[in-house]
Amino acid sequence: xxxxxxxxxxxxxxxRELSAAQPGAGLLALLPEGEIxxxxxxxxxxxxxxxxxxxxxxxxxxxxxxxxxxxxxxxPFASMPPCFLIEDVNAGKPSGxxxxxxxxxxxxxxxxxxxxxxxxxxxxxxxVSNIASLLDGAYLALANRVEYAGVNAGSETxxxxxxxFDAQRLIGNGVLGLLLPGDAATVLEHGFVQPxxxxxxxxxxxxxxxxxxxxxxxxxxxxxxxxxxGIDLTAANFYEHGVHxxxxxxxxxxxxxxxxxxxMADDGxxxxxxxxxxxxxxxxxxxxxxxxxxxxxxxxxxxxxxAAGPTRKLLVFYCAGRRMHLGRDAETxxxxxxxxxxxxxxxGALSLGxxxxxxxxxxxxxxxxxxxxxxxxxS
Length: 379
Fold this sequence. Notes:
Number of helices: 9
Strand order of the largest sheet: 1-6-2-3-10-11
Radius of gyration: 20 Å
Strand content: 25-35%
Number of domains: 2
Distance between the termini: 6 Å
Structural class: alpha+beta
Largest sheet: 6 strands, mixed
């Protein structure tokens, strides 16, 4: 793992060291959105040095227990894993699901036959509106041939911005996929506790909740927050409170999938980050304090570094909504994660939605407000 400035000299030095140590190597690069104009320098240098490149642009980066907005993380692969970059994933034919499945099936032909199941790590443009449906379709076709994990890239303003790239292209409305080696598991946790009261999402369309219990969604949301937390919610202060009181979708296996409401319409509809199935059972969650409900302990216990030794490194993605809720305590939570995991370094980015399961081999789902972590064993 190497954090580098995005100037010509720094990039060239980083690539010289990488190429000398690992001929035929590749990079996963993470950039903050404020550095997007410097991406062409990195792409040009990778092409000139014969280094394969894939990556995403995020609201900010993680460096240890800090959020930073300059430079880039260059995460090396001794040999670039199979990867694909699909622009406008939902446009035209074949369908988005078929495009992803076809790319994965092609990549699996080039994966090692050592018996370790690869992880399909997907980085979506956060403005793709049907990520949960794409995951459902991919799982129906691929089942347990791969483990599933991933995050969303893009701008924290939720304005359109091309945010996925390889050595030649920078694209939007798409998905980047990597078939990562099966020598490490990607784990996900959120620390939310399920309350007793449940409601029905009686009318939804994609990420829009039109009604809850057959009444305008905002009206019900407003009443529950008042009754349970004493907060007088209005259209004017909605965005201020929404990140602290997300919805939870109840799954049959007892898992809670978080959906953060980010906008409301004049008709009382609420818009969330991520789809909400019609007739789903919803609960109103209260965002936890940093590290609450043994979240970090559970996450750290599931990390497997193998024989990595004392210089263990961790790739971390941290939800932007979670940071918004916690404020400065988000850095405290990262520091606690570093200590619990016993790692010498953490690199990563602020994400706009996360993909995975709270159990290994579980069904892949689209989450909000989570931490996604993976031991980085190739650095």
